[in-house]
Amino acid sequence: MKIIYKISLFIALICFASGKLSAQCGGGRYLSPIFSADNVTSNIQYGSNVTYTNTPQNLLLDVYQPTGDAALLRPLIIMAHGGSFLFGSKTGTDVVPLCHDFAKMGYVVASIDYRLGITGIPVGTPDSVGATESVIRGVHDGKAAVRFFRKSAAQGNPYKVDTNQIYFAGVSAGAIIAIHMAYLDEMSEYPSWVDSSHAGLSGGLEGVSGNPGYSSDVKAIVNICGAIRDTSWIHAGDEPICSFHGTNDQTVPYGSATIYLLGTYPILRVDGSSSIAARVNHMGIENCFDIYWGQDHVPEVSNAQYYDTTRVIMRNFLAHFVCGYQLECTYANTVGIENLSGNDDVLIYPNPAGNQLSVIGYQLSEKAEVTIYNTLGELVFKSVIRNSKFEINISDFLNGIYFIQLKSGEKASTYKIAVQH
């Protein structure tokens, strides 16, 4: 009887996992680095335009793809680097780690270069006109990158991109681009002081950086320490947003305040992530906002703990749209914990789990047994528990998907978890 039960459980688990994989979700995809490596194709031209000095520039991007991925369609994340619209590149340390990590989760990720430079730097004094025009150039380039992938999808889809699942993420200046791509979407909002006859600014909201005739719409955006000129541009029904920002940010204001270029030149008043969060909440737009309490600008670039938090919450946010998981904006969470038994009284976290797995709330009728199986149906852990809250050491587990069964008397509950060291 025990043999029959174990075989039945194994078959049920494998069938469940296979069904989820056929939908390209489940199995840890988009939640865990299920691919051990990714490959990068560098310096792909996605458009061209002229800089603020009227110098022609080819616009390039790098594409990160999971190595050995057999999926025919994958969601795309386009990443834009920071650098005050003066510095930075698609190979910067502010974006490359995220590109690698999300590619290993199963995404296609593109890191883009965009036109840099602001009138008044290095000769003269920068002002609100020159700074705003640099943002518009970046927005035009970002939209051209989105259109590039829709165009390539229509011409054979070499990057296997699901054009219904395109997301745009940015850090600092790149986040400012992402935010304005999403919310500066009406000509009535277009800054009156921007002169479209200036170099590289023609084309209205869309610009002329390349790939006309294709949509530049994205499904959602990620804002890491960015800002918008005016939150009144955000309307009900606009794109969802996931934001991160330090309360002591001296580069891009956390709330609404004057932004200083290079910490020296007062440019104009902008609305930072805190003000954006208030607006999108008021408009009923889905969003996450993680606050870096007491931190300055982009702490995730140099601090592993902040990077990990950023990656996990960004992962949760995107998986909500890609896979339909419940929106979870906290780090310690149950995103991806799939309950196979229908019992909802247990909290298992974190997921993916690293070295320790916590279980809270399991109601014991008597002493209980916990067992964990891998996807081959092999028993990898077994123990007796006597408390409704306990921890399991999984430091010696291999990365991957596991099924944890809790059994007390006649009651049995099974959950699907992921392990990521």
Textual characterization of the structure:
With 421 residues, the protein is of the alpha/beta class. Helices cover 24% and strands 30% of the residues. The protein has six helices and 19 strands. Helix 3 packs across helix 4 (173-183). The longest helix has 27 residues, at 128-154. Residues 1-23 have low confidence and may be disordered.
Which key phrases capture this entry?
Immunoglobulin-like, alpha/beta, Rossmann fold, 2 domains, eight-stranded mixed sheet, elongated, five-stranded antiparallel sheet, 421 residues, 6 helices
Arithmetic mean pLDDT: 88
- The CATH topology of the largest domain is Rossmann fold
DSSP helical segment count: 6
Specify the helix fraction band.
Answer: 10-25%
| Poorly predicted ranges | 1-23
The domain tally reads 2
CATH superfamily of the largest domain: Alpha/Beta hydrolase fold, catalytic domain
CATH C-level name of the largest domain = Alpha Beta
Radius of gyration: 24 Å
Characterize the main sheet: 8 strands, mixed
| Cα end-to-end separation | 36 Å
Major sheet: order of its strands?
1-2-4-3-5-6-8-11
Question: What is the fold's blueprint, element by element?
Answer:
Layout lengths: L1 H21 L15 E13 L5 E11 L7 E7 L15 H9 L3 E5 L15 H27 L6 E11 L1 H11 L36 E5 L2 E2 L12 E6 L9 E6 L3 E8 H11 L3 E6 L11 H20 L14 E2 L7 E3 L6 E5 L7 E7 L4 E7 L3 E5 L6 E9 L2 E9 L2
Parallel strand pairs: 3-4, 3-5, 5-6, 6-8, 8-11
Antiparallel strand pairs: 1-2, 2-4, 7-10, 9-10, 12-19, 13-14, 14-17, 15-16, 15-18, 18-19
